[in-house]
Write a structure and sequence with these properties.
Length: about 70
Amino acid sequence: MKQLQIKIMGLSETRWKGQGHFNWYGYKIIMSGQAEKGRNLVAIMCDSTSAKAIMGYDTVSDRILSVRF
């Protein structure tokens, strides 16, 4: 992301289980998933500057994630 100067990136087909957010090497990852097998889940990854602009998020389902900036 840093090399390509991408600030916000949507991720699909992730294997993280559960809903919520965490920090990973300076990036904030917000994930949405309820599937028991941990497949077909979605997430958004953003840099630290964009992460400060996040007002909130809503995990609707394992395929839908809404983030307010």
